[in-house]
Amino acid sequence: MIYFDNSATTAIHPSVLDAYMKTSQRIMGNPSSLHHLGNQASRLLSESRKQIAEGLSVTPEEIFFTSGGTEGDNWVIKGTAIEKHGFGKHIIISAVEHSAVSKAAAQLVEFGFEISVLPVDKRGRAKVEELESLIRKDTILVSVMGVNNEMGAIQPIKEIGEVLEAYPTIHFHVDAVQALGKVPVSNYLTPRVDFATFSAHKFHGPKGVGFIYWRKGRRIAPLLNGGGQEGQKRSGTENVAGIVAMARAVRLQLEDQELKNKREANIKEYLMDSLGKYDKVTLFSEDSEDFAPHIICFGLKDIKGEVLVHAFEKKDIIISTTSACSSKSKVSGSTLHAMGVADDKAITAVRASLNAESTMVEAEQFMVAFNQLQEQFSKINS
Questions:
Q1: pLDDT of 221-277, one tens digit each?
Q2: Do both 86 and 205 map to the same domain?
Q3: Number of structural domains, the chain?
Q4: SS3 of residue 187 by DSSP
Q5: Any idea where the Aminotransferase class V domain is (predicted)?
Q6: For 125-161, what is each residue's pLDDT tens digit?
Q7: Which of 91, 116, 240, 303 is the most exposed place for a label (fewest CB within 10 A)?
């Protein structure tokens, strides 16, 4: 099987799975318990927090564990709304945010908040020049993803941060779920970023665990109340085995990152060059420094995305649709729609996403399969 759906989820790394299994078997204590078994678990949490912080060049006190990206996004957005509602009820998000951001923001409208949408250009990158015109006296939060999950466009986080330097009271959140290990940390954890969200299963860790970066000095309200874990910020017994495994996954993901990214970029370049030779193929992603090395989004004329996905699946090749492709009703909320792509093209879009273990041989086999499929579709449609 060729697995090119790594933006959806990644296979857990063997050594990460080993860490998970050993911790599950050997560490039975609740980290909040006072006895030695609890202390054992608590020490592992501290070590994991320190390891993740070192990888991101932040302090351990700025790392808080969650159940994943969706919780992290909801926590930052709704936690900011609760904490700062007395100062304002206006939030800005980009037009290409993951639904964990856009739907969390939309729910706040029911409670009197207003949401402004920062548009993107034809390449899917946020229009920084329009941000200042959206900022109001009651703006409390700006949320922009680091790397777009559909197109792979790297968002101009540094430039947005420069605009927000003049507005120190506004929280700046980055959904960095697709960014870890794919672009330099300095791209999405700039000095102006206050919060960033991460999810372990996107970088070969276990599902159901993640963390947020929370810049020291900022304040958001907790969403989960109870036992007061995570320094009274996020109650609930910590997933010790998952967190230990995630810490190892972070270290492995950041290890030799430049070399891994170069290898992915070479495969992406081959795929994009090969796909670009077909008249009926539309390339939505780019092979440039403004795009992550692991995501290729393209479409085959007149063939719906889900049809192409299932056709590849029959050849034991796994790719995915983007959010535009399941039905026309979803096009209006997609990255492609925000980019101004016509609906008839948007519904053809599929996404192939690589990881550090992807090979050129797999890419060549992918192209052999694609050539066969496009010939089949051409005969059917002729």
A1: 999 999 999 999 999 999 999 999 999 999 999 999 999 999 999 999 999 999 999
A2: yes
A3: 2
A4: helix
A5: 2-366
A6: 999 999 999 999 999 999 999 999 999 999 999 999 9
A7: 116
